[in-house]
Amino acid sequence: MRRVLVSAVLASGLFGCASPQRLAAELVAAATPGHLRPVVACWEKEYEASGFEGEYMATIDLEISSSEVIESARVTALEPTGESRSELDTGPFRACLEKAFVGIELPSEEDADGPGYSSIVGASVRNYKIAFLGDQDERRKRAGGRQAHVLIGPRADRCQGLYVYHPPRDTSALFTEIALGKARAESARGKDRDQHARELQKTYDLQLELAARLRADLADTSLPPVNRKRLTEALDTARTEARATGAAIGCKPFEDPR
Protein backbone atom coordinates (compact mmCIF):
# COMPACT_ATOMS: atom_id res chain seq x y z
CA MET A 1 0.00 0.00 0.00
CA ARG A 2 1.33 3.44 -0.94
CA ARG A 3 1.56 5.67 2.11
CA VAL A 4 1.90 9.40 2.64
CA LEU A 5 4.20 10.72 5.36
CA VAL A 6 2.33 13.30 7.40
CA SER A 7 3.96 15.43 10.06
CA ALA A 8 1.40 16.70 12.52
CA VAL A 9 3.55 18.97 14.65
CA LEU A 10 0.95 21.64 15.26
CA ALA A 11 3.29 24.47 16.21
CA SER A 12 5.40 24.32 13.06
CA GLY A 13 4.83 25.16 9.41
CA LEU A 14 3.84 21.62 8.43
CA PHE A 15 4.50 21.26 4.69
CA GLY A 16 5.19 23.05 1.49
CA CYS A 17 3.46 20.23 -0.40
CA ALA A 18 -0.30 20.73 -0.63
CA SER A 19 -1.45 17.13 -0.31
CA PRO A 20 0.37 16.22 2.95
CA GLN A 21 -0.53 19.62 4.37
CA ARG A 22 -4.20 19.03 3.62
CA LEU A 23 -4.07 15.57 5.16
CA ALA A 24 -2.38 16.92 8.28
CA ALA A 25 -4.96 19.68 8.64
CA GLU A 26 -7.83 17.21 8.17
CA LEU A 27 -6.33 14.80 10.68
CA VAL A 28 -5.91 17.51 13.32
CA ALA A 29 -9.48 18.69 12.77
CA ALA A 30 -10.94 15.17 12.88
CA ALA A 31 -9.03 14.04 15.99
CA THR A 32 -11.57 15.48 18.41
CA PRO A 33 -12.23 14.00 21.87
CA GLY A 34 -15.50 12.62 20.52
CA HIS A 35 -13.67 10.69 17.82
CA LEU A 36 -10.95 9.51 20.20
CA ARG A 37 -13.07 8.28 23.10
CA PRO A 38 -10.77 5.36 24.05
CA VAL A 39 -7.86 7.80 24.24
CA VAL A 40 -9.87 10.20 26.38
CA ALA A 41 -10.76 7.33 28.70
CA CYS A 42 -7.03 6.67 29.25
CA TRP A 43 -6.51 10.31 30.17
CA GLU A 44 -9.45 10.38 32.53
CA LYS A 45 -8.09 7.43 34.50
CA GLU A 46 -4.60 8.93 34.57
CA TYR A 47 -5.94 12.30 35.69
CA GLU A 48 -7.91 10.78 38.56
CA ALA A 49 -4.97 8.56 39.57
CA SER A 50 -2.78 11.68 39.80
CA GLY A 51 -5.18 13.25 42.28
CA PHE A 52 -6.44 15.64 39.59
CA GLU A 53 -3.00 17.11 39.10
CA GLY A 54 -0.49 17.01 36.30
CA GLU A 55 -0.68 17.76 32.60
CA TYR A 56 1.13 16.13 29.70
CA MET A 57 2.26 16.72 26.16
CA ALA A 58 2.40 13.47 24.21
CA THR A 59 4.24 12.97 20.92
CA ILE A 60 2.87 10.04 18.96
CA ASP A 61 3.60 8.25 15.67
CA LEU A 62 0.53 6.77 13.98
CA GLU A 63 -0.14 4.50 11.03
CA ILE A 64 -3.54 5.10 9.42
CA SER A 65 -4.99 2.84 6.74
CA SER A 66 -6.70 4.04 3.56
CA SER A 67 -10.02 3.22 5.26
CA GLU A 68 -9.25 5.79 8.01
CA VAL A 69 -8.54 3.15 10.68
CA ILE A 70 -5.60 3.72 13.02
CA GLU A 71 -3.53 0.54 12.74
CA SER A 72 -0.71 1.27 15.16
CA ALA A 73 0.47 3.92 17.59
CA ARG A 74 3.78 4.55 19.33
CA VAL A 75 4.25 7.18 22.02
CA THR A 76 7.71 8.63 21.42
CA ALA A 77 7.53 11.18 24.21
CA LEU A 78 5.26 11.85 27.19
CA GLU A 79 6.36 14.93 29.07
CA PRO A 80 4.69 16.50 32.14
CA THR A 81 3.85 20.18 31.66
CA GLY A 82 2.19 22.95 33.59
CA GLU A 83 2.78 24.17 37.10
CA SER A 84 2.08 20.84 38.84
CA ARG A 85 4.12 17.95 37.57
CA SER A 86 2.84 14.48 38.27
CA GLU A 87 5.36 12.13 39.89
CA LEU A 88 3.41 9.02 38.91
CA ASP A 89 4.93 6.37 36.70
CA THR A 90 3.77 7.24 33.18
CA GLY A 91 4.36 3.71 31.87
CA PRO A 92 0.73 2.58 32.32
CA PHE A 93 -0.58 5.80 30.76
CA ARG A 94 1.77 5.39 27.79
CA ALA A 95 0.73 1.75 27.30
CA CYS A 96 -2.94 2.66 27.59
CA LEU A 97 -2.60 5.35 24.93
CA GLU A 98 -0.83 3.09 22.48
CA LYS A 99 -3.51 0.44 22.86
CA ALA A 100 -6.40 2.92 22.79
CA PHE A 101 -5.49 4.44 19.44
CA VAL A 102 -5.42 1.11 17.61
CA GLY A 103 -8.69 0.32 15.87
CA ILE A 104 -10.14 3.83 16.04
CA GLU A 105 -11.90 4.60 12.78
CA LEU A 106 -11.95 8.29 11.95
CA PRO A 107 -15.17 9.32 10.18
CA SER A 108 -14.75 10.16 6.51
CA GLU A 109 -17.41 12.87 6.78
CA GLU A 110 -18.37 15.44 9.38
CA ASP A 111 -20.57 14.20 12.20
CA ALA A 112 -21.81 15.43 15.57
CA ASP A 113 -18.32 15.05 17.07
CA GLY A 114 -16.45 17.08 14.47
CA PRO A 115 -15.02 17.18 10.94
CA GLY A 116 -14.16 14.08 8.94
CA TYR A 117 -10.87 12.78 7.59
CA SER A 118 -10.43 10.91 4.32
CA SER A 119 -7.58 9.79 2.12
CA ILE A 120 -7.31 7.43 -0.83
CA VAL A 121 -3.98 6.21 0.55
CA GLY A 122 -2.72 5.31 3.99
CA ALA A 123 -0.84 7.83 6.09
CA SER A 124 2.23 7.57 8.30
CA VAL A 125 1.93 10.30 10.91
CA ARG A 126 5.06 11.43 12.69
CA ASN A 127 5.41 13.70 15.73
CA TYR A 128 1.69 14.18 16.26
CA LYS A 129 1.32 16.15 19.48
CA ILE A 130 -1.60 15.97 21.89
CA ALA A 131 -1.89 18.12 24.99
CA PHE A 132 -3.62 16.45 27.93
CA LEU A 133 -4.90 19.25 30.14
CA GLY A 134 -6.50 19.29 33.55
CA ASP A 135 -9.94 20.44 34.52
CA GLN A 136 -9.07 23.94 35.68
CA ASP A 137 -11.68 26.48 34.65
CA GLU A 138 -9.23 28.81 32.94
CA ARG A 139 -7.76 26.03 30.84
CA ARG A 140 -11.22 24.83 29.87
CA LYS A 141 -12.20 28.37 28.85
CA ARG A 142 -8.97 28.80 26.92
CA ALA A 143 -9.39 25.56 24.98
CA GLY A 144 -13.13 25.92 24.62
CA GLY A 145 -13.38 22.49 23.03
CA ARG A 146 -12.30 23.99 19.71
CA GLN A 147 -8.74 22.75 19.48
CA ALA A 148 -8.80 19.24 18.08
CA HIS A 149 -5.39 18.38 19.54
CA VAL A 150 -6.41 19.23 23.10
CA LEU A 151 -8.10 16.67 25.28
CA ILE A 152 -9.59 17.96 28.52
CA GLY A 153 -10.30 15.67 31.44
CA PRO A 154 -11.79 14.30 33.42
CA ARG A 155 -15.02 12.64 32.36
CA ALA A 156 -15.32 13.16 28.65
CA ASP A 157 -16.57 9.58 28.48
CA ARG A 158 -19.02 9.43 31.37
CA CYS A 159 -20.29 5.93 30.65
CA GLN A 160 -17.04 4.21 31.54
CA GLY A 161 -16.33 3.45 35.17
CA LEU A 162 -13.44 5.60 36.26
CA TYR A 163 -12.81 4.34 39.76
CA VAL A 164 -9.12 3.95 40.50
CA TYR A 165 -9.09 1.36 43.26
CA HIS A 166 -7.73 -2.00 42.21
CA PRO A 167 -8.93 -4.25 43.62
CA PRO A 168 -12.20 -2.46 44.46
CA ARG A 169 -12.59 -1.44 48.07
CA ASP A 170 -14.66 -3.18 50.75
CA THR A 171 -18.41 -3.05 50.36
CA SER A 172 -18.92 -1.24 53.67
CA ALA A 173 -16.86 1.75 52.54
CA LEU A 174 -18.58 1.79 49.16
CA PHE A 175 -22.10 1.65 50.60
CA THR A 176 -21.23 4.63 52.81
CA GLU A 177 -19.76 6.68 49.95
CA ILE A 178 -22.70 5.86 47.67
CA ALA A 179 -25.16 7.07 50.29
CA LEU A 180 -23.20 10.31 50.70
CA GLY A 181 -22.98 10.75 46.93
CA LYS A 182 -26.72 10.36 46.53
CA ALA A 183 -27.29 12.93 49.26
CA ARG A 184 -24.91 15.43 47.64
CA ALA A 185 -26.55 14.92 44.24
CA GLU A 186 -30.00 15.46 45.68
CA SER A 187 -28.82 18.59 47.50
CA ALA A 188 -27.51 20.05 44.24
CA ARG A 189 -30.64 19.19 42.24
CA GLY A 190 -32.31 22.34 40.89
CA LYS A 191 -29.58 24.57 42.32
CA ASP A 192 -26.34 23.80 40.47
CA ARG A 193 -26.67 21.69 37.34
CA ASP A 194 -22.92 21.17 36.94
CA GLN A 195 -22.52 20.09 40.55
CA HIS A 196 -25.54 17.82 40.28
CA ALA A 197 -24.13 16.13 37.18
CA ARG A 198 -20.70 15.71 38.79
CA GLU A 199 -22.17 14.14 41.94
CA LEU A 200 -24.25 11.77 39.81
CA GLN A 201 -21.09 10.78 37.91
CA LYS A 202 -19.20 10.13 41.13
CA THR A 203 -22.09 8.04 42.43
CA TYR A 204 -22.19 6.10 39.16
CA ASP A 205 -18.48 5.32 39.45
CA LEU A 206 -18.97 4.13 43.03
CA GLN A 207 -21.86 1.90 42.00
CA LEU A 208 -19.76 0.31 39.27
CA GLU A 209 -16.96 -0.22 41.77
CA LEU A 210 -19.43 -1.82 44.18
CA ALA A 211 -20.63 -4.19 41.46
CA ALA A 212 -17.03 -5.15 40.73
CA ARG A 213 -16.38 -5.75 44.44
CA LEU A 214 -19.46 -7.97 44.77
CA ARG A 215 -18.52 -9.97 41.68
CA ALA A 216 -15.06 -10.52 43.13
CA ASP A 217 -16.57 -11.68 46.42
CA LEU A 218 -18.89 -14.09 44.60
CA ALA A 219 -15.90 -15.69 42.89
CA ASP A 220 -14.99 -17.29 46.23
CA THR A 221 -16.03 -20.92 45.78
CA SER A 222 -16.01 -21.53 49.55
CA LEU A 223 -18.91 -19.15 50.21
CA PRO A 224 -21.78 -20.72 52.19
CA PRO A 225 -25.07 -20.79 50.24
CA VAL A 226 -26.72 -18.21 52.48
CA ASN A 227 -23.84 -15.76 51.96
CA ARG A 228 -23.84 -16.39 48.21
CA LYS A 229 -27.56 -15.67 48.05
CA ARG A 230 -27.12 -12.43 49.98
CA LEU A 231 -24.24 -11.27 47.77
CA THR A 232 -26.12 -12.19 44.59
CA GLU A 233 -29.10 -10.11 45.68
CA ALA A 234 -26.79 -7.22 46.56
CA LEU A 235 -25.15 -7.45 43.14
CA ASP A 236 -28.53 -7.39 41.39
CA THR A 237 -29.45 -4.28 43.40
CA ALA A 238 -26.11 -2.62 42.62
CA ARG A 239 -26.60 -3.25 38.90
CA THR A 240 -30.14 -1.88 38.99
CA GLU A 241 -29.06 1.27 40.81
CA ALA A 242 -26.08 1.78 38.48
CA ARG A 243 -28.41 1.40 35.52
CA ALA A 244 -30.71 4.10 36.93
CA THR A 245 -27.86 6.50 37.70
CA GLY A 246 -26.28 5.81 34.33
CA ALA A 247 -29.53 6.67 32.59
CA ALA A 248 -29.64 9.96 34.50
CA ILE A 249 -26.28 10.98 33.02
CA GLY A 250 -27.12 9.71 29.55
CA CYS A 251 -25.48 6.28 29.69
CA LYS A 252 -27.81 3.84 27.92
CA PRO A 253 -27.93 0.94 27.78
CA PHE A 254 -26.12 0.06 30.97
CA GLU A 255 -23.28 -2.38 30.40
CA ASP A 256 -21.93 -4.37 33.29
CA PRO A 257 -18.31 -3.19 33.65
CA ARG A 258 -15.33 -5.47 33.32
Brief descriptors of the model:
single chain; 258 residues; alpha/beta; 2 domains; five-stranded mixed sheet; 43% helix; disordered N terminus
Would you write up a description of this structure?
The structure is a single chain. With 258 residues, this protein is α/β, with parallel strands linked by helices. The chain has 2 domains: 3-152; 171-248. It contains 7 helices and 5 strands, in the order E-H-H-E-E-H-E-H-E-H-H-H. It has helices spanning 18-30, 37-49, 91-101, 137-143, 171-188, 193-218, 225-248, and strands spanning 3-7, 55-64, 70-81, 122-133, 150-152. Strands 1, 2, 3, 4 and 5 form a 5-stranded mixed beta sheet that branches. Helix 5 packs antiparallel against helix 6. It starts with a strand and ends in a 10-residue tail after the last helix.
Largest sheet: 5 strands, mixed
Approximate helicity band: 40-55%
- Number of DSSP E strands: 5
Strand content range: 15-25%
Structural domains: how many:
2
Q: Count the helices. How many?
A: 7
| Sheet/helix structural class | alpha/beta
Poorly predicted sequence stretches spanning 5 or more consecutive residues? 1-18, 136-156
Distance between the termini: 37 Å
What coarse outline follows from CA principal-axis ratios? elongated
Question: Can you give the mean pLDDT?
Answer: 75
Rg result: 21 Å
Secondary-structure element series: EHHEEHEHEHHH
